[in-house]
Each structure stands twice: as C-alpha cells, then as structure tokens.
Amino acid sequence: IAIAAGGHLSLPALGFSGPGSHFSRWRFQTRMEKANRNGVNIQPEHDLVPKFDRHDELVQYIQCRDTSQPKQMHTNVPHRPNPVDCHGIVTTLCELWRACGDEKRRSFRNTCHDKVDPRNRGVYLTSGDDRRCWTDWR
Questions:
Q1: Contact call for residues 111 and 68 (beta carbons, < 8 A)
Q2: 107 in helix, strand or coil?
Q3: 46: region left, alpha or beta (phi > 0 left; psi from -120 to 50 alpha)
Q4: Which pLDDT value is given to residue 115?
Q5: SS3 content of the chain, % helix, strand, coil (to 5)
C-alpha cells in the first residue's frame, strides 16, 4: 500500500516485502510512472508475498539466509529453513544491519542476536569471496 499511496501523493515511498503495485494502482488512482519515480520495495529472496503482483517500483533485493552460524570459507550460507521467516520485518531489519551496517553506529545486537552471527556482519554470503563488504565495523 505504501508504494501505491506514495505514487498517488507523488511522495517518496519505501515498502518492505510489499506485494507489488502494478494492479493495485488502479484502485489507488495512480500511474505506473509515479511508482517508477517514487517507490522502492525491499524484497528478501524467497519471500512469497512480493510475488502476488508485478512491481512498477524499484526493487532492492536482499538475502534471506540463515546467518545465525558463521560462514565457512569458500561456501554459500544456506537459505533460512522456513520461507515464512523471509517475510518478517525483523529478519529484514537484521539482514540490512548485517549487510550494510548502520551509519549512525546503532547496535541491533539485542534484536538480531538469534538471526545474525557477529562474524557474518559485512560478509558476502554467496560467493567464494570471503572478504568483508565494509570494514569500518564497531
């Protein structure tokens, strides 16, 4: 709904695991171009909800992998065992924190302690490249 409402009001909109805005835009009396220009949807891989409709907005894909255990050298981290977990906002928050860090240096350790092993912060999960994505971690 955020993407369609943002298009209708011509305001920037951010959605998390939204179902898409293509067919619902008629209901919200907006146009595809407005979703193109104003909307971003964060979509975890293997989340089923975003597959209900097409996306006119920009989609930023993120991982949905079991990062609760440390990544082994030169291996891929396995997917979360339950695809429903991929739709949860806490899982998405923890993945964004794990992959991107936080420029304000806030800690999400208490929230993400069971979802993110500290050794996986800033690490690529799906390649043999075992370097960190970002190195300024505290």
A1: no
A2: coil
A3: left
A4: 92
A5: 30, 15, 55
Indicate the helix (H) or strand (E) that contains 13.
Answer: strand 13-16
Rounded to whole angstroms, how far apart are CA atoms 90 and 106? Answer: 15
3 state SS of 14: strand
Taking residues 96-123, what's their average pLDDT?
89
How far apart (Å, rounded) are the C-alpha atoms in residues 74 and 23? 42
Q: Does this model's pTM top 0.90?
A: no
Task: Locate 72 and state its tokens.
Answer: 């082994």
Question: Which single residue is written with the structure tokens 């011509």?
Answer: 10
Residue 25 makes CB contacts below 8 A (sequence gap 6+) with: 4, 7, 31, 32, 35, 56
Report the pLDDT averaged over residues 26-35: 83
